[in-house]
Specification:
By secondary structure, the chain is of the alpha/beta class. The chain contains 14 helices and 14 strands. The protein has a seven-stranded mixed sheet with strand order 1-9-8-5-4-2-3, with helices on both faces. Helix 1 runs antiparallel to helix 8. The longest helix is centred in the last third of the chain and has 19 residues. The protein is globular and about 85 Å long. Bound molecules: pyridoxal-5'-phosphate. Pyridoxal-5'-phosphate binds next to helix 3 and helix 4. The site of pyridoxal-5'-phosphate (PLP) has 14 residues, from helix 3 and helix 4.
């Protein structure tokens, strides 16, 4: 019998998830209904965020974070090159200049020492990324950013449910994306992410006014709450503030998350602990099965105490392809022939043609990230990956690496 194809990641939907969506479809609210607020409240509780705004994508959440923080033309936004395009593109949406700080080879996120060394006076925001769910070391990154008066955003799209231990005086553990060091945290509900609504995003804000403004911008800049009206022009009867009244106070977007998506995401939210438990278990089995293999390095949080708290969105191993004598494409192809999907996370964003052309970024700008990229390969990791299938991944990879 042909063995099933194992993708590098896939959503994990239950009958209860399906029923939650169907139940929503039977109500009168497909969008902008009660499920959005309910999901926001539940998500805020689950990560310990002061304020939460549910939006149509993490890209929208990053965009709104920068906008409500007042970042715009003339400002520089520094992020990690080892991320999905959105972490950098958000800066472009608000007219700012995206820039990249090389990674620490341990955290695989912004290296705080390099952030300090290369700090430019126009830098007004730092977007740190918890790559694969490995804690980015936000206290150290935020320390540099704050000293220079910059806003701190944690792109925790890989980190839902993940936690990390803080420094001695603030031990935590703290949630990725919602902790004392960040002004904003962003999460994605895209189908490849640990918790999905199909599409969707979550913006966590420290500041209530930021959240209120992000909530307005999510829907065309419209304000419906009486205590936030501008009352303009107060005395003209034409502008009587009857029950229909609303105000467009600034230009916003349609970044709304639907009730259908919220129904799915909320149902999934109840299973995040279960998902993470499975993901950690799978990582533990990878560690056992793939330890001590030449030319292979496994990812790991720099601080061992963080390992049991890590969300493990991806399991990106490093392979010294040159030493192995096979290219990455060859290995990916051979694995694919054996029914095993892999992926590369990520092409360093500064080397994308757009970024090279628009900003003159060149190879050599972020040597650690570029070196990492040459060796990276993400192995299958998702809660329903069976032990048997995982053994197959381990055996096939071992076989290829020891030819
Ligand atoms: C998925 C992802 C995003 C974008 O999420 P969308 O919801 O698809 O917009 C941003 N940053 C990182 C690190 C991601 O993995």
């Amino acid at each position: 019998m042909r063995q099933p194809f194992l993708p590098y990641g896939k959503p994990c939907l239950s009958e209860a998830d399906v029923e939650a969506v169907v139940a929503c479809l039977r109500t009168d609210w497909l969008t902008q209904g009660p499920r959005v607020k309910e999901f926001e409240t539940r998500f805020a509780d689950s990560v310990g965020a002061p304020h939460v705004v549910a939006v149509s994508s993490a890209t929208a959440a990053l965009h709104l974070a920068l906008q409500v923080a007042g970042i715009g033309p003339g400002d520089r936004v520094v992020t990690s090159p080892l991320t999905f395009l959105a972490s950098a593109n958000a800066a472009l949406y608000v007219g700012a200049t995206p820039d990249f700080c090389d990674v620490d080879p341990e955290t695989l996120s912004i290296d705080p020492r390099k952030l300090e060394e290369n700090w430019k006076p126009d830098t007004r925001a730092v977007v740190a990324v918890d790559y694969a769910g490995i804690p980015c070391g936000i206290p150290e990154i935020a320390e540099v950013a704050r000293r220079h008066g910059a806003v701190v955003i944690e792109d925790a799209c890989h980190g839902v449910g993940g936690k990390f231990n803080g420094p001695e005086d603030q031990p935590g553990p703290w949630s990725l994306g919602a902790n004392p060091w960040v002004d904003f945290g962003t999460f994605s509900l895209h189908a490849v992410k640990t918790l999905t609504g199909g599409e969707g995003g979550v913006l966590c804000c420290r500041d209530g006014d930021h959240a209120a403004r992000a909530g307005r911008l999510r829907s065309h800049g419209v304000e419906r709450s009486v205590d936030r009206f501008t009352h303009y022009p107060e005395t003209d009867p034409l502008f009587e503030q009857g029950p229909w009244y609303y105000e467009m106070q600034e230009l916003g977007y349609n970044f709304r998350l639907t009730d259908i998506q919220c129904a799915l995401a909320q149902s999934q939210l109840g299973r995040v602990d279960e998902f993470l438990h499975r993901r950690r278990e799978i990582v533990r089995i990878y560690r056992e099965g793939l330890s001590g293999i030449p030319n292979l390095t496994l990812p790991r949080p720099p601080r061992p105490a963080d390992e049991p708290l890590t969300s493990w969105h991806l399991f990106p191993v490093r392979i010294d392809f040159e030493n192995v004598g096979l290219t990455r494409s060859e290995i990916m192809k051979k694995l694919r022939q054996r029914g095993i999907g892999t992926q590369v996370h990520y092409i360093p964003v500064h080397l994308q043609p757009y970024y090279r052309k628009a900003f003159g970024y060149q190879p050599g700008k972020c040597p650690q990230a570029e070196r990492y990229y040459r060796s990276a390969l993400s192995l299958p990791l998702y809660p329903t990956l069976s032990e048997e299938d995982q053994s197959r991944v381990i055996d096939e990879l071992k076989g290829l690496l020891s030819q």
